[in-house]
Design a protein that fits this description.
380 residues, alpha/beta, FAD/NAD(P)-binding domain, 8-stranded mixed sheet, 12 helices, 27% strand, globular
Amino acid sequence: MKKYDIAIIGGGPAGSAAALYLNKVGFEVCVIEKKAFPRETLCGEFLSKEVTQNLKELKLFEKFLLLNPNPINSFKFFYDNGKHIGVDLEFPAYGLKRGNFDNFLLNCVKEKGITVFQPCEVREIIREGDSFTLFIDDGHSLHEIYSSKLIGAYGKQNILDKSLSRNFAYNKSSLNGIKFHIDESLFNKLDKKAIQIYSSKGIYCGINYVDDNMVTVCFLENRKESKNNPREQLRNLMRTNKSFGNLFNNNLEQSIDDLTLYGTGNIYFGNRELVVNGIYMIGDSAAVIAPLAGDGIGMALQSAELIAEVFQMQRASGMNSAETEKFYIEEWTRTFRRRLFVAKLLQNIMLNNYSRKIGFLALSNFIQLLPKIIRSTRSE
């Protein structure tokens, strides 16, 4: 049975970054990822200043630029009637396919000599005091590994949430996230340097240019407002938001049914337990920020850095498990609570027809408020 200081369940941005930070300070780490990479997953594919800061700390930024991410320098919001407001961003940002970014980070993990079990799924977790035995399935046989600590970095939803009896595991939020990649040839025109938000009844959609001549179209829908399937939702948004419809040429209508759909149903944006049965949660496993904030990947990398700092402090100070859990929860809350609150408030406004209209009118008359709102969704 192989023994590790720390096992990480999930090889996405949070899990890979945690492995890199923990390896950097001397922990022996392994990563367990159930999917083969590269693979796509639901994501707005907007990489904010928090992402670039962490990549620079890990000395990966120059290597990241070789992926040819699309630079983004402005934000535009288009109301239902076609009118819009916009501002320049006060920080550098990029658009990049999530599959390419995840693959890049996990390859960096492998290059460091960190053990990666992939594709491999956790079937059972047995806690013994402060340590864990994991039974993992590589599709051919079960393997047993041991770790002194365990990190959950497996994303918004996982079958483990139900086995751990997490508070949201059976929640029906009626909020679905959908992503399409659409070739730039299907657009009439597109501002490649802007992230653009479009809204209509029960839905808001983010669009930004990424790599490989593709455009990410990602939306959150309230299924209580509409029972249309995702492709019909896309068509409906084209009809109800004039500016959104004008983005595309006639060839899109013929291509919608052939687009690959990536999605997650019943996304839970409420509070989640940060430590469950001794397992430390990071990234979306700890909390899902409203996509309007564009900070999901940033929070993933920052929470990875935080957990490495907490475990390093525990090792140096001799804190016991209860003290370490308490310290992590306090630091995580201090770091992310404000951002989560503001993002959820903005999302509630966007999904309500009346409040969205009032909000747009207010910002149209006081445009100087928009940069302040954007700053409130970023790290301090």
